[in-house]
Design the sequence.
C-alpha cells in the first residue's frame, strides 16, 4: 500500500455543487494531516490541517477517519476559483514529522 | 513583504553541466527544504536543513548537493551525475516547531537541452 494515495481525478464539477475526495494513508501512527492546494504551474499552498476528527473553514471541511485511515476534503458551493489540484500531505512519524509524504494530488475543475 | 523567492524561474542545462538553483527566504524560518515534482508523482524530498551549517539527505539526494551557510539561503546544485534532472523544483521553509506547515517558493523549472 502506498504511504499516501489519492484519486487523481480529474473531477469535473458544475459551479455551486458539492464535491468530496478522499486520501488514504498507510502509517497508523500518523497524527496530523494536511491539505495543500496547487494551482497549475504554481507552488503548493496550505489549505487546511487536521489534527483530530476534523476541521472546517468556510466552505471547506476536512474529516479524518482513523479506523479506516483516510482523510477527506469536502468543498461546498464550489466556485470557479476552486479549480486546482489538491494535495494530501502526511508527516512521517518515523522522522519526527520532519519529513512529509505528498500524495500525487486530485485535480478538480469547476465548470461554469 | 515576507516570503520565499526562487530564481531563475526557468533554467536550461546542457549535458554534463552543473547548475545551481537559488532559494532565499526572509521569514526567519530555521528549516528549509528542496523538493522536485514530476508529472503524475507527488513532491519528493531532495535535501533539507533544520539549522545553519547542517543539512540531511532526503529520499532522492543522488546527483544533488546543497549548502546552508546563511539562515536565509539554501541553494541547490544539480550536478551532471543527476541523469534525469528535468523537473519542477520547489523550495520550502518552516519554523522549527511546525515543520509540517511549509511555505513554498514559486519554483524553478529545469529543462535539459
Sequence:
Amino acid at each position: 500500500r502506498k504511504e499516501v494515495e489519492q484519486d487523481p481525478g480529474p473531477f469535473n464539477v458544475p459551479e455551486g455543487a458539492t464535491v468530496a475526495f478522499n486520501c488514504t494513508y498507510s502509517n497508523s501512527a500518523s497524527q496530523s494531516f494536511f491539505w495543500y492546494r496547487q494551482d497549475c504551474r504554481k507552488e503548493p499552498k496550505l489549505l487546511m490541517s487536521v489534527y483530530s476528527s476534523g476541521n472546517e473553514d468556510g466552505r471547506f471541511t476536512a474529516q479524518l477517519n482513523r479506523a479506516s485511515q483516510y482523510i477527506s476534503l469536502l468543498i461546498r458551493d464550489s466556485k470557479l476559483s476552486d479549480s486546482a489540484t489538491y494535495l494530501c500531505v502526511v508527516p512521517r512519524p518515523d522522522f519526527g514529522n520532519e519529513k512529509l509524504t505528498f500524495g500525487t494530488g486530485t485535480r478538480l475543475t469547476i465548470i461554469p | 513583504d515576507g516570503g520565499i523567492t526562487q530564481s531563475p524561474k526557468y533554467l536550461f542545462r546542457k549535458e554534463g553541466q552543473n547548475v545551481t538553483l537559488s532559494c532565499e527566504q526572509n521569514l526567519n524560518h530555521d528549516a528549509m527544504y528542496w523538493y522536485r515534482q514530476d508529472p503524475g508523482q507527488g513532491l519528493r524530498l531532495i535535501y533539507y536543513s533544520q539549522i545553519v551549517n547542517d543539512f540531511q539527505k532526503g529520499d532522492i539526494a543522488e546527483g544533488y548537493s546543497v549548502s546552508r551557510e546563511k539562515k536565509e539561503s539554501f541553494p541547490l546544485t544539480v550536478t551532471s551525475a543527476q541523469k534525469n534532472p528535468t523537473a519542477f523544483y520547489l523550495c520550502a521553509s518552516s519554523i522549527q516547531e511546525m515543520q509540517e506547515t511549509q511555505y513554498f517558493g514559486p519554483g524553478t523549472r529545469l529543462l535539459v537541452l
